[in-house]
């Protein structure tokens, strides 16, 4: 039986965030170059996006390129940027057809101009779609985002637009690049690594973390369903006791 049938559609996570990891190892296993792994990761992106939209998940955030990934060999970085441009170009029509809005978080200024252009066009073209929002984390790191928020908040305080005593959780939320997006209830990382790698540090504060040995290019709809079922079998206590939750 498919894990899909075990999903309680009334208790779906609203937001799923994924660290798509393992492309390089997947390619290496086949005796190919790392880039081959990235190319094959695109299928998993399509499958996951489609599965989330079909289920009724409202937000899907995909960690596609981290601030730290700029330190990879130039050839790989360039190949990843080219893959990004060609994929966005190819997929915009599908996003439209499926009523999916695309947005991006991260330092877009660091992306090659061609990349920025394709991205902005796709974001603009899909801005009124409302079935699901696909958030691409590109040249993103949580520390970069938090620092940016701290500076924005400080600026407001300095200009007497904000009282220090009024700074709250909500103030931080509103000044991050994820403003307006509910925090992910579920974070998935593929490839067996069990770390956050500078992804959504603030937003993941109470997320359920799911780690799978599957390498990203092998991640399928069924793997996603499995992760959601696992999530639904957990008790989210938010500091309370189990007894409090059942009464
Ligand atoms: C994830 O796969 C893709 C990106 C980080 C861009 P990796 O390229 O990190 O693959 P591994 O971890 O080396 O196998
Ligand atoms: C994290 O993967 C970033 C993305 C998936 C885009 P990495 O493969 O770069 O992470 P580390 O450096 O091994 O933690
Ligand atoms: Mg990796």
What Rg do the Cα atoms give?
19 Å
Briefly note the CATH topology name: Undecaprenyl pyrophosphate synthetase
Name the helix and strand elements from N-terminus to C-terminus, one letter apiece.
Answer: EHHEHEHEHHEEHH
The main β sheet shows up as: 6 strands, parallel
The total count of helices amounts to 8
The number of distinct structural domains comes to 1
Share of residues in strands: 5-15%
Low-confidence stretches: none
Textual characterization of the structure:
Strands 3-4-2-1-5-6 form a six-stranded parallel sheet, with helices on both faces. It contains eight helices and six strands, in the order βααβαβαβααββαα. The chain has 247 residues and is an alpha/beta fold. It has helices spanning 23-29, 34-55, 74-97, 113-125, 142-158, 169-175, 221-232, 242-246, and strands at residues 15-19, 59-66, 100-105, 132-140, 186-189, 208-211. It has a single domain, classed as Decaprenyl diphosphate synthase-like (Undecaprenyl pyrophosphate synthetase, 3-Layer(aba) Sandwich), CATH 3.40.1180.10. The model has no long low-confidence stretch (mean pLDDT 98). Helix content is 43%, strand content 15%.
């Amino acid at each position: 039986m498919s894990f899909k049938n075990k999903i309680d559609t009334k208790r779906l996570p609203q937001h799923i965030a994924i660290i798509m990891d393992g492309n390089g190892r997947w390619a290496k296993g086949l005796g190919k170059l790392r880039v081959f792994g990235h190319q094959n990761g695109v299928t998993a992106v399509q499958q996951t996006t489609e599965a989330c939209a079909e289920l009724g998940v409202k937000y899907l955030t995909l960690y596609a390129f981290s601030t730290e990934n700029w330190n990879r060999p130039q050839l790989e970085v360039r190949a990843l940027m080219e893959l990004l441009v060609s994929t966005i170009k190819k997929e915009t029509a599908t996003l439209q057809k499926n009523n999916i809005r695309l947005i991006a978080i991260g330092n877009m200024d660091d992306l090659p101009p061609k990349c920025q252009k394709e991205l902005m066009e796709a974001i603009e073209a899909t801005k009124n779609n409302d079935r699901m929002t696909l958030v691409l984390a590109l040249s993103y790191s949580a520390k970069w985002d938090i620092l940016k928020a701290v500076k924005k908040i400080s600026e407001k305080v300095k200009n007497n637009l904000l009282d220090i005593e009024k700074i709250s959780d909500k103030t931080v939320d509103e000044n991050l690049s994820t403003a307006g997006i509910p925090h992910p209830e579920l974070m998935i990382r593929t490839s067996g690594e069990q770390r956050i790698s500078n992804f959504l540090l603030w937003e993941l504060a109470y997320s359920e973390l799911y780690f799978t040995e599957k390498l990203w290019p092998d991640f399928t709809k069924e793997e996603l369903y499995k992760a959601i079922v696992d999530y639904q079998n957990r008790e989210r206590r938010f500091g309370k006791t189990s007894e409090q939750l059942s009464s």
